[in-house]
Design goal:
Blueprint (H helix, E strand, L loop, with lengths): L1 E3 L12 H16 L17 H6 L4 H7 L4 H12 L4 H14 L9 H19 L4 H18 L2 E3 L1 H17 L5 H11 L10 H21 L3 H19 L9 H8 L1 H35 L4
Antiparallel strand pairs: 1-2
Helix pairs in contact: 1-5, 4-5, 4-10, 5-13, 6-7, 6-10, 6-13, 7-8, 7-9, 8-9, 9-10, 10-13, 11-12, 12-13
C-alpha cells in the first residue's frame, strides 16, 4: 500500500542560478588552493570534503536550507568522490558532479532513480548466475517500492520494513561473502525510504561496489571453491609453520608462495582483479550519478 506524495517540495538552489554559481565559486577556489581533502562530510574551517568546501560547513542543514538540496545527495557526492582512488581524483571528481546539479527542480525522488540503476544491475547479475528464487523475489519487491516513489507515491513504512526483513533473511541464508549474499545485502540496504534515511543511498552504493567486485571475480573465473581453498591453505601454512613458532618473522603468504607457488600466483591475480573491479565500480557509480542529475536538467 502507498499514498500519494503531498506537501511543499524544495527546488534545487531555490530556483536561483546565482546560488549555484556562488557554490561552484566557493568549491573551485578551495580546489585550486588544494584544500579539498579525502575525508567525506568534513569541514574544519580551512579544508574539507567536496560538500564541506562547497558549503564551507560540516552541517548538512546548510546544504538543505541554504541551497535547497537533499541530504542524500550531499552524502552520496562525497562517498562517490572518496571512491575515486587518490586524493587528487577525489578532489577533481567533485567538480563535474556539482556542475551537473540542475537549478529549479525537485531532486528528492531522484535518489530512488539512482538506486533503481544499481538494482537493475543486480537483476542482470542474477540472470547470469545460478537461479535464486528468494533473492529474485525480494529484488522485485524492493524495486517496486522505489518505482512507486519515483511515480510520486509514498509506500507505507510497514512495506519497507517487510522488504528489509525479507532481504535480510535471504542474505542470512546465503554462504558468507558469496556473490549471492553480497547481492542480497545490496537489496537489503535499499529497503529504506530515502526521505527518512538519507544515508540509505550511500549504503546501497557501497554494498553494490562490493557485489560488483565479487561478480567481476566470478566472471573472470574465480570460483567459490577457489576462495574456500585459499582459507584452507592459509590455515595449513599457519598450523605447519607458525603455530608453534610465534617468533617467526615470516608470514603465511610467504610460506604459501613456497609451498604452492601456482596457487599463490593465482591468489595475487585474484587480488589484482578485485582491486581493478572496485576501481571500475567506483567510476561506474560516478557516471550513474552524473546521468541521473543530467536527466533532470531543465536547460
Amino acid at each position: 500500500m502507498s499514498t500519494n506524495l503531498t506537501g511543499v517540495t524544495s527546488l534545487t538552489f531555490h530556483n536561483n542560478q546565482a546560488l549555484k554559481g556562488a557554490m561552484l565559486a566557493r568549491f573551485c577556489a578551495h580546489l585550486e588552493a588544494g584544500r579539498v581533502k579525502g575525508l567525506p562530510n568534513t569541514w574544519n574551517g580551512e579544508t574539507g570534503s567536496v560538500i564541506g568546501c562547497a558549503t564551507e560547513s560540516d552541517d548538512l542543514a546548510v546544504w538543505t536550507t541554504a541551497l535547497g538540496l537533499p541530504k542524500w545527495l550531499a552524502l552520496l557526492i562525497d562517498a562517490v568522490a572518496a571512491g575515486q582512488g587518490t586524493p587528487e581524483a577525489f578532489a577533481l571528481a567533485g567538480r563535474p558532479t556539482l556542475e551537473a546539479i540542475p537549478v529549479g527542480v525537485d531532486l528528492e525522488r531522484a535518489g530512488s532513480e539512482f538506486v533503481l540503476k544499481l538494482l537493475a544491475d543486480i537483476g542482470i547479475w542474477l540472470g547470469k548466475a545460478a537461479p535464486h528464487v528468494p533473492l529474485s523475489e525480494v529484488l522485485a519487491t524492493v524495486t517496486a517500492l522505489h518505482e512507486a516513489v519515483l511515480a510520486g507515491k509514498r509506500p507505507e513504512a510497514a512495506d519497507w520494513r517487510a522488504a528489509r526483513r525479507a532481504a535480510m533473511a535471504v542474505a542470512d541464508s546465503c554462504t558468507g561473502h558469496s556473490i549471492e549474499q553480497l547481492m542480497a545485502s545490496t537489496v537489503e540496504a535499499a529497503g529504506w525510504d530515502a526521505s527518512h534515511s538519507p544515508t540509505m543511498i550511500t549504503d546501497v552504493m557501497r554494498a553494490w561496489v562490493n557485489a560488483y567486485s565479487a561478480y567481476a571475480l566470478l566472471d573472470a573465473g574465480w570460483t567459490a571453491a577457489d576462495e574456500a581453498n585459499v582459507y584452507v591453505r592459509l590455515k595449513e601454512m599457519h598450523d605447519r609453520f607458525l603455530k608453534d613458532n610465534p617468533e617467526s618473522k615470516r608470514t603465511v603468504f610467504e610460506h604459501y608462495a613456497e609451498q604452492y607457488p601456482a596457487e599463490e600466483e593465482r591468489l595475487r591475480w585474484r587480488m589484482r582483479t578485485a582491486r581493478e573491479a572496485v576501481s571500475t565500480a567506483n567510476a561506474m557509480v560516478s557516471t550513474m550519478l552524473l546521468a541521473v542529475l543530467q536527466a533532470h536538467s531543465v536547460d
